[in-house]
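Researcher: We're teaching a course module on how sequence relates to structure. For the next exercise, students receive a sequence and then see the predicted structure as tokens, so they can try to spot secondary structure elements on their own. Here is the exercise chain.
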Amino acid sequence: MCGLSRSAIRAVRSVKRSVLDSLFLLPTSFFALLLLLLLAYNAASIFSVRVPTEPLRRLPPPSSSASSSPSASKVSSGSNVMYAIREEHPPLVSKTHLALLQKDEILLRPIISPPAPRPPKVRRRRPKRGARPLRLGAQSRGFAAQVNGFFGACEARFFMTWISSLESFGDREAFAVESLFNSHPDGCLVIVSSSLDSSEGREILRPFRDRGHRVMAIAPNFGYLFKDTPAELWFQRLKRGSLDPGEVALGQNLSNLLRLVLLYKFGGVYIDTDVVVLRSMSRLRNVIGAQTLDAETGNWSRLNNAVLAFDKGHPLLFKFVQEFALTFDGNKWGHNGPYLVSRVVARVTGRPGYDGFTVLPPSAFYPVEWSRVRSLFRGPRGHLHSKWLHDKLRHIRSRSYAVHLWNKHSRKLRVERGSIVDHIMSDCCIFCNKSNVHSVDTQEQGLLQFASSSIAQKHTL
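Model: And here is the predicted structure for the students to work with:
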């Protein structure tokens, strides 16, 4: 029995050795084929879809009640019908896998056609409090006929512009008109202004007319004034909205342009409403005033456009208008005003055809720089200061045609008794008793008080 078992074991071992020997004798390709079959079986088991044995039931057409069913939804295309079955108990997704999926937002977003782009919002600038929006379309009929008819045979023709509200035309502006007629009793003044060209505006100017002075307010006709000038295309772009007016008040830049085209088409003298006229300007022709001088060379370093006197159609005026239209920048203060005339005059000086004008020294219109305008409003502080005030006043009276008060820097200053402005008021007022002018209460804010005019009754400084 023991021998039989040993022989059986030997036989099994012999068979096993024979099988192993036969396997080693098989080619390598056989094992590769066997491996491919195993991989194919594994892939088939992974990607196989388990089809339920229960036959699909045709769902009824969607209705209000069926549409809310969470178990099935229907998508139709032509005559083919496809049903999507949602599992009542979907397999759980681990937080790790969910986080990985959420990183790829494209896989989670539904495919929806993008909405039509909305037009960009245009920010409209709100006008400052107390200021009225500028009416660019304001015009007056027969502008040229009215102006030429009003001037008539006047030897001294003056222009002012007021592109602002009627309420802001106060005593300082009225005094500029008063000083003009004090030095030019037979002169004619045209104020180009939409607000003053009204019944209320005519009432403000009535005291001057009652005294026989020739003053008229007329709304600007921009179409006529800019026609046949380089400003015409600029103004069309502004009205269409294709030109950025910038941060600087548009009225200020329009005033800079208006004074140029007014003189170009009519000729005469332009003065700002914060300029006090001291003497006659009727003999001034084709002049512009320097604001500052170069200390080393003695030549002008900056000009100003607060006072301009030019003949009709002067080529320098055309150059000014052209420069305005070509280099307009509404974000830089002074770029279209004092800096503009300075740039142009520096370029054309010495060129043929541009020698018919004169640059007057600062003492003519700007005897005090804007940074020192406060000194004009201060009364004497002592013996030395009193002597300086006396000498400065004598210098202004003897050499200046006018004094620019730099309204932006002096509008809140008070006129003190015995100051230079106090004496200028005495020299230039026409609605006052000059012998008693110093009895005015100078502690009131502003430039002056009209003691006996209806203007004084309307405006209290």
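Model: If you want an answer key for the exercise: The first strand starts at residue 72 and ends at 77. Residues 10 and 247 are 110 Å apart (CA to CA).
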